[in-house]
Design brief:
single chain; 124 residues; mainly beta; 10 strands; globular
Length: 124
Amino acid sequence: QVQLVGSGGDLVQPGGSLRLSCAASGFTLDYYAIGWFRQAPGKEREGVSCISSYDGNDTYSADSVKGRFTISRDNAKNTVYLQMNGLKPEDTGVYYCATTDFCKSLNANEFNYWGQGTQVTVSS
């Protein structure tokens, strides 16, 4: 069964850190660029970060998370990560990972297969 499973979301205080994981089963993640998106209640889905396929040497992040979030991949584990530091209340939302061929942009329409989301809540 082909699946993308996002995990690692939690309730964290402002300034805290979390690491999200996007694990693939039923297919090899190496071939795909992977993006992370988030959606806050009442808001549209927003692109957060993207990492290129294979070696993951190319990454692309939204201005709102640059310097705080880092995307990486471990192909041996068939997993992509999103390390989130310096979390702010406005980072709250459901986080999703998705596949694409190339990280051309953080437009959700460019992404094909979506995993289930994981909830991140930043609050004191």
